């Protein structure tokens, strides 16, 4: 049956909306969902990309303001996607920031490589959580994350790729120097080293650990703060650390996108945010969006 176009389809020169979204949720029939999403996107004239797997969805779409709103309303009517935290950016131009539409089935909505099976054995679906899974680090709102970084009481990890870090990052954050997400987990091991034991203090000059029990003092585990663009990369990265035994693991809820909405002057974020569309990067005065790549 032919697809009937909505009257909300975007026209060159009009305002358009970019929607960023992800959700971990059990998808029994990924191929069936792909066809449903294709029909909706084609009907509303949306461009972009969506990855679908048995573990959920991850995508970025662009189209007319009303068309995107209609798509969101239709998808949100499905109980599986009712709790998606949609992130929007409005813009205007002669063309949408995507050249076409790609919706496909993948093994994971963001490929975690060799760490995937270990992570998946330590997480479970939970619709009551922000991203849809349990076993992750503690989610911090942008304001909570900002205040935590201002306290300077832990290590800050950028869970994006190196070229994204080079364009912009939070003040004092650590560059994991990765090329893709699958490299993240080896990089975390290298940066953090063995899981520390509470009550032990690392003496870097001697390469030994001395007990603090004699003094009656206890050394708490180091706080680990992490962030990415929209939140999806931190979900499994924080779950990986929690499964290995790290405590005090925190992630920025909603990613840089939500942070810059809360702190439009940039706050503690320095530079620009890389986005995977024709805009390339977005400064603090505009809320950035992207679909976290594989």
UniProtKB/TrEMBL annotation:
Pfam family membership, one: UPF0176_N
SMART domains: RHOD
Originating species: Spumella elongata
UniProt name for this protein: Rhodanese domain-containing protein
Boundaries of every Rhodanese domain copy: 150-268
Entry-linked SUPFAM superfamilies: Rhodanese/Cell cycle control phosphatase (SSF52821)
Region (Disordered): 196-218
């Amino acid at each position: 049956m032919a697809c009937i176009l909505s009257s909300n389809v975007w026209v060159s020169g009009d305002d358009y909306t970019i929607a960023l979204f992800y959700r971990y949720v059990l998808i029994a029939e990924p191929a069936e969902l792909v066809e449903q999403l294709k029909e909706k996107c084609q009907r509303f004239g949306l461009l972009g990309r969506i990855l679908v797997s048995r573990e959920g969805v991850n995508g970025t779409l662009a189209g007319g303001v009303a068309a995107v709103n209609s798509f969101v309303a239709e998808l949100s009517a499905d109980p599986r996607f009712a709790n998606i935290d949609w992130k929007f950016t409005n813009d205007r131009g002669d063309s949408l920031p995507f050249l076409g539409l790609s919706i496909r089935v993948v093994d994971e909505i963001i490929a975690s490589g060799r760490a995937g099976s270990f992570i998946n054995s330590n997480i479970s679906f939970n619709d009551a959580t922000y991203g849809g899974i349990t076993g992750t680090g503690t989610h911090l709102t942008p304001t909570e994350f900002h205040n935590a970084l201002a306290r300077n009481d832990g290590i800050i990890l950028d869970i994006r790729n190196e070229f994204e870090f080079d364009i912009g990052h939070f003040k004092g954050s650590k560059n994991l120097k990765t090329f893709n997400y699958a490299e993240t987990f080896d990089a975390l091991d290298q940066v953090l080293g063995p899981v520390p034991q509470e009550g032990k203090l690392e003496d870097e000059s001697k390469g030994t650990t001395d007990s603090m029990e004699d003094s009656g003092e206890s050394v708490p585990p180091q706080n680990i703060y992490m962030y990415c663009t929209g939140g999806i990369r931190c979900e499994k990265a924080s779950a990986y650390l929690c499964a290995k035994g790290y405590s005090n693991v925190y992630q920025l809820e909603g990613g840089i996108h939500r942070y810059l909405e809360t702190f439009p002057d940039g706050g503690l974020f320095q530079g620009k945010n890389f986005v995977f569309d024709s805009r390339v990067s977005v400064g603090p005065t505009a809320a950035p969006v992207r679909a976290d790549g594989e």
